[in-house]
Amino acid sequence: MNWSGAKNWLIVLFVSINIFLIFTMVKSDMRLSVIEAQTIEQTVEVLQRNNIFVKSDIIPTKTPKLGAIDVQNSVSDFDEFAKRILGEQAASLSGGHYASSTMRLSLEGDMILYTDSAPLDNIKELTASSAQRCVAEWLGKHGFENNMLNSYVTENDNGYTVYINQKIDRYALLDSYFEAQVTKNGITRLYGSWFVPSSGQSAFSNDTARVKPITSILLDFARDDLRIKNGSNTIVQIDLGYITGEKNTHHTFATAVPVWRIRCSDGKEYFFEAR
Q: What's the pTM?
């Protein structure tokens, strides 16, 4: 047996394995970077000295690489969409308003408002879960691509309010959402805007760049003129997601860009470009 040849072959094998492992780790690091705990704590201290309060455990520590995403509106033709939601008997009123029996539909810019004064779903036992199912089934029935994220429910005097976001990979498309009021009879009101990623698009489809670390964004938040004017000083939630922007006019296609969203205890939300 040629021991010298076998030894050389084993050396090549081990080197190849090490190169593969190093490449895997480097590729992972390219996608994701982590903010050190000390940096988080120092940022919290700086904010406190400026009368801004946030718990360190809600501050995201990862700064992934993300790219802008091409998205398309679930509404392209108003009349066609009205028939999809209200049925073939949908009557066009004026200025993007439609009616059919007890149902009404208003389309303004990218925003959708649907109401039904007498829904007939007759939910046997209205709970948070059944309210969520009702909304999911309604979206599926009417042809929406239902890729939900961050679905949550609040109880009120009339039943439940269900809030859902569209998502791109694991990130919320923050201004693609529906807020629905659900009673024991079904959905009485649904409001929002629904964009979906164009074919083949993902968070890594286009040119990517590492997002700005949230520690840097929090310092921008402290200096933000609107925040100062509003007096917002207690942060309760921080999210990394996408946003398409202006909704006052209708867009068949749009570009969703990465943003950091900071939500405060006074209900105010602040958005900062993440790249």
A: 0.78
